[in-house]
Amino acid sequence: MMSNNANTNTGILIRFDDIAPNMNWEMMDKCQELLDHYNLKPVMGVIPDNQDIELLKYPKRENFWETVKKWKSSDWSIAMHGYNHLYDKETNKEDFFNYGGKSEFFGHSYEDQLFKIKRGLEVFKKNNIQIDTFFAPNHTYDKNTFKALKDSGILKIIDGYGLMPYTSNGIQFVPQLFYKLYLLPFGIQSTQIHINYWADKDFINFKKFIEKNHNKVIKADLAFSKISNNYINKIVNVTLKKLLKLKRFIF
Ligand SMILES: [Zn+2]
C-alpha cells in the first residue's frame, strides 16, 4: 500500500494532536482500529508532561507510555507536541506563521524554550522513545523555537503553509494546511486531528475520509523524504501562504 505512493507527489499524513495520558481513549481506540484495518501509520503528537486543565478532565490511561511504545513498535511515528501544553503568551499574530492566538513557546526566551524542549525530551528518553519531530501547541513558533529545537537535535516540524514539504531556518517542514479533513489533488500535507473534541459524527466523517483516501495516506518519514526546495515550490508555498492567510478559517 505504501509503495504505491512512493513515487507520487500527492499524499496526506494523519497527525493526531494532544496525545496524553488523559484523553478521549474511547475515540482513540476506534481510530486505531480503523487505521489498523487499512494498515495506516499516523504521527502521534504526544505532550510529554501534560498539565492542560481541559485535557486533564478526560479519563486517564495508567499505562500510557506502554501504549505509546506499542504504537512506536507498530511503526507509528511519535512526535513531541509542546512540553506541558500550557499557554502563557499572546502572539498578536507576530508568530512565525502569523496565525495568532495563545502560545506555549513563541515569545519566550531561547533559554526558556530550550529548557522546555530538553525537559520534554528527557520524558521521552526515560521511556526509550527517540524524538526527531515536533509541532507546537496552537502552531505558534518564533526564531528561538527553531534554534532551541535544532540545538536539541530536532530538525523536523509538521506545521505551516505549503503544498510540498520544504526546508526553512535549517528545519524540515511538512505543511499542515486545514482544520478540516481535506485532501488537495496535488501536494503533500498533514491533517490535524483533535479527537478530544469529537462527537460520533466526527468519527463517521473520519471513517469516510479514510475509506475514500486510505491509498493517499503516507507515513511521516515518506512525507519528509519529499522535501523540495526548488524555485517553483518556493513560489507556490509563498503564494499559498498569502491565499490561505485569508482563507484558513473558512476550511
Ligand atoms: Zn495541542
Commentary on this structure:
- The chain has a single domain (8-247), classed as Glycoside hydrolase/deacetylase (TIM Barrel, Alpha-Beta Barrel), CATH 3.20.20.370.
- The protein contains 8 helices and 12 strands.
- The relative contact order is 0.18.
- The protein has 251 residues and is of the alpha/beta class.
- The structure holds zinc ion.
- The site of zinc ion has 5 residues, from strand 2.
Short overview:
The protein is of the alpha/beta class and 251 residues long.
Please tell me the overall pLDDT.
91
CATH class: Alpha Beta
CATH topology heading: TIM Barrel
CATH homologous superfamily, by name? Glycoside hydrolase/deacetylase
Assembly state here? Answer: single chain
Q: What's the shape?
A: globular
Largest beta sheet: what is the strand line-up?
7-8-10-9
Instruction: Specify the biggest β-sheet.
Output: 4 strands, mixed
Q: Please report the distance between the alpha carbons of the first and last residues.
A: 29 Å
C-alpha Rg, in Å?
17 Å
CATH architecture: Alpha-Beta Barrel
Low-confidence stretches: none
Estimate the helix proportion, in percent.
25-40%
Class computed from helices, strands and strand pairing: alpha/beta
Which range does the strand content fall in? 15-25%
Total helix count? 8
- List ligands, each type once: zinc ion
**E-strand count:** 12
List the helices and strands and how they pair.
Elements: E1 10-13, E2 15-19, H1 25-37, E3 43-46, H2 53-56, H3 64-73, E4 77-80, E5 89-90, E6 102-103, H4 110-126, E7 133-134, H5 143-151, E8 156-158, E9 166-168, E10 171-174, E11 187-190, H6 200-213, E12 217-218, H7 220-225, H8 231-247
Parallel strand pairs: 1-11, 1-12, 2-3, 3-4, 7-8, 8-10
Antiparallel strand pairs: 5-6, 9-10
Helix pairs in contact: 4-5
The protein binds zinc ion (ZN).
